[in-house]
C-alpha cells in the first residue's frame, strides 16, 4: 500500500464496487488529487481488485467480493462496506488475510429501531386489518392491544439491537436483550429459549453468521406464545422461512413481519407474500431519507483516519462476522 | 335523592343507559342489596329518568341523554359517562342543573397515545403503501422518514393530549402541546396557527365544544406544511371533513388519519374511505382489550365515593365541556 500522498500525483487507489442501478457514493469528490478512484461492477471486480489499496463496497447487497476475493494477485488492505452486516462479502480467504474490514455501524440503528416500533405498534393496533377494512368501506370496531406492559425479546445485542431495545422500552415494553455471550444488560444465547417462551414480541436483529443461520426454525417458533409476534430486520437466512409460514398457518404464533429474506428481491411466486398474518417489506427498515449521504460521510471519516494511519473505528471481527464490543 | 342506605332495602336507584348491542357494564353485581339497578335504552330513557338518583351512560355514543334530559320530572343528581368526551350528552338544561357530571378521564389516555404513535410511525415508514405493494407481490424499495427530530403539535391539553405528547416525546419528537389557555408546558389557543405552520405532525385530541367545533378547516389545513400529516382521535366534528378531503387532494398536506367522524359509523358512500393519503379507522383508538372492565371498575370507584358522600373525581365543567385541570 502506498502512503497517503501530499504530492500532486495520487498514489493511493480506492476501488468502488458500485450499485446496480448505479447510485454513486456521495462525497468522493473530496478525494480528488488525493486518491485515484476506480469503479468496478460485479463483472470487473476480480480484475481490478489487485490494483486497489482500499475497497469501498457501495453495492452492499452484492456477493461479488466473496466471489472475487479468492483470486490471484495483491488484495486491498482495507475493505469498507456500506452496510451493517458483512455476511455478503466475507469468505475464508478474506477472513484469513491481514485486510481490515469495517462496516457502517451506527447509520442504521435509530431508523431500524423506529421501523421495528412501527411494526410492533401496527400489529398491536391491528392496523393492517384496519387498512383492509377501509378498502372494503367496512366499519368494524375491534379491541386492540396495548404495548405498554408487554414483553419483548430482542435477539442481537449490537448497536441495532440495542437501539431497538431502547425504543421499545420508551414505549413501556419490558425488553430482554440477547447476545452471543452474557454481559451486563445482555442475556447470553443459552437463555434464548427460555426468554422466547414468555415474549409478546420477538425481534431478530442478529448478524448472520454460521452460528445464527437458521436460528429461527420450527423448534423456536414452537417455543413462542400463540399470542407472540415475530419481527426480522436482521438478515433473511436467520429465519427458516418455510418454518415461519408453517408456524403462522398453524397459529403457533399470532403474526410476523419480515423486512429481509433468503432471496432478495423476494420472488413474485414466494408464498411469503400471501401468508396470513405476515407483513412483507422490501429491506427498507434502515433506509431513511438521506441514508446514502450518511453512508458516504461515514466512509469519508473512516478514510481520513485510514489515510492518516490512525486506528479505524467499526473494525469487524472477521471470525465472528460483526464488530464486537458495546 | 335518597341517602346511600345501610338498610336491607336499597333506596338508591341507578339507571343504566345500555349499549346497543347490549354489553352490560361489568361489576354492577357489587351493587346488589345496595342500589336498585334499572336499565334503559334510547326509547325508555325519558320515562325512567325521573326514577333515577344516578345515571350511568354506558352507551356513550348515544345522544339519548341530550334528547331526554329537557323533559318533565326529577332528574338524577349524578351522571357518569363511560367516555372521555361529554359532547354526546350535554344540553343546556343539564348544564344549568345542579347535576354533577363525571367522565371516564384516564382510561383511554395511554391506549390512545399508543394508537397515535402507531399512526405516526406507520405514516413515517410508509406502511400503508408497503401493505398495498405486498398485495401486488411487488418489491419496491423506498426511503422512509425518521420520526426522531421531527415536530408535533398536539391540540388538546387534557390527559389524552398529554399522554400523546409524552409518547411522541419518547420517540424523540419535539412536541408543542396546545390548550385553551396558556399555562406552564402548554401553549394557548392563540399560538395554534403559528405552531401549525412548523409541525410535521398535527394531532387533534381536543374536546368537542362550541369553541372547537370545526377548528380544523380549510384555513388551518392551508397553514400546514405540504409534508405535514394530520391525525384526529378527538371527535369527528372538530374537523371539517370536506376541507380535509380537499386539502389531501390538493396536496396541501401529505397525509392524514381519522379515527372519529362527523357521522359514525362512517357511511359506506363517504368519500373519506377512498381519499388518497387518508387512513380511516372505526373509532377504536382507546379501546384496548379489557377497556370495558376498566370503565366498569372506574365507575364503581366513583360510585363508592358518591355513595359515601365524598367529593367526586373527574367532575366535568359543564360550561366548558371537559374536566378542567392540569
UniProtKB/TrEMBL annotation, chains A, B:
The keyword Transcription is assigned to this record: no
Record keywords, A-Z: NAD, Oxidoreductase
InterPro entries: D-isomer_2_OHA_DH_cat_dom, D-isomer_DH_CS, D-isomer_DH_NAD-bd, NAD(P)-bd_dom_sf
Domain of life of the organism encoding this protein: Bacteria
D-isomer specific 2-hydroxyacid dehydrogenase NAD-binding domain sequence ranges: 118-285
Ranges of residues in domain D-isomer specific 2-hydroxyacid dehydrogenase catalytic: 41-316
Region of interest (Disordered), residue spans: 1-23
Pfam families linked to this entry: 2-Hacid_dh (PF00389), 2-Hacid_dh_C (PF02826)
Compositionally biased residues, Low complexity: 1-15
Organism: Streptomyces alfalfae
Family per record: Belongs to the D-isomer specific 2-hydroxyacid dehydrogenase family.
Cross-referenced SUPFAM superfamilies: Formate/glycerate dehydrogenase catalytic domain-like (SSF52283), NAD(P)-binding Rossmann-fold domains (SSF51735)
Identification of the protein by name: Hydroxyacid dehydrogenase
PROSITE patterns documented for this protein: D_2_HYDROXYACID_DH_3
Amino acid at each position: 500500500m502506498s502512503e497517503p500522498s501530499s504530492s500532486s500525483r495520487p498514489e493511493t487507489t480506492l476501488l468502488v464496487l458500485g450499485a446496480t442501478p448505479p447510485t454513486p457514493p456521495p462525497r468522493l469528490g473530496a478525494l480528488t488529487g488525493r486518491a485515484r478512484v476506480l469503479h468496478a461492477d460485479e463483472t470487473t471486480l476480480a480484475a481490478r481488485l489487485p490494483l486497489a489499496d482500499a475497497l469501498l463496497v457501495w453495492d452492499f447487497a452484492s456477493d461479488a467480493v466473496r466471489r472475487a476475493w479468492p483470486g490471484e494477485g495483491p488484495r486491498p488492505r482495507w475493505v469498507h462496506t456500506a452496510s451493517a452486516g458483512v455476511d455478503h462479502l466475507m469468505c475464508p480467504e478474506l477472513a484469513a488475510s491481514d485486510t481490515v474490514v469495517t462496516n457502517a455501524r451506527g447509520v442504521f440503528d435509530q431508523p431500524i429501531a423506529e421501523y421495528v416500533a412501527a411494526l410492533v405498534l401496527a400489529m398491536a393496533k391491528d392496523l393492517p386489518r384496519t387498512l383492509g377494512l377501509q378498502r372494503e368501506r367496512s366499519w368494524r370496531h375491534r379491541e386492540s392491544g396495548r404495548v405498554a406492559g408487554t414483553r419483548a425479546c430482542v435477539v442481537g445485542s449490537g448497536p441495532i439491537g440495542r437501539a431497538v431495545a431502547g425504543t421499545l422500552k420508551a414505549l413501556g415494553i419490558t425488553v430482554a436483550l440477547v447476545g452471543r455471550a452474557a454481559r451486563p444488560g445482555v442475556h447470553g444465547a443459552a437463555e434464548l429459549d427460555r426468554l422466547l417462551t414468555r415474549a409478546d414480541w420477538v425481534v431478530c436483529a442478529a448478524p448472520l453468521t454460521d452460528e445464527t443461520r437458521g436460528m429461527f426454525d420450527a423448534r423456536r417458533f414452537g417455543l413462542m406464545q400463540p399470542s407472540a409476534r415475530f419481527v426480522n430486520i436482521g438478515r433473511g437466512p436467520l429465519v427458516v422461512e418455510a418454518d415461519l409460514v408453517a408456524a403462522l398457518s398453524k397459529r403457533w404464533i399470532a403474526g410476523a413481519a419480515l423486512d429481509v429474506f433468503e432471496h432478495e428481491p423476494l420472488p413474485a411466486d414466494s408464498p411469503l407474500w400471501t401468508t396470513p398474518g405476515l407483513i412483507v417489506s422490501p429491506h427498507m427498515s434502515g433506509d431513511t431519507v438521506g441514508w446514502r449521504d450518511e453512508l458516504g460521510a461515514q466512509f469519508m471519516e473512516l478514510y481520513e483516519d485510514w489515510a492518516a494511519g490512525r486506528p479505524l473505528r467499526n473494525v469487524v471481527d472477521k471470525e465472528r462476522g460483526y464488530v464486537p464490543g458495546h
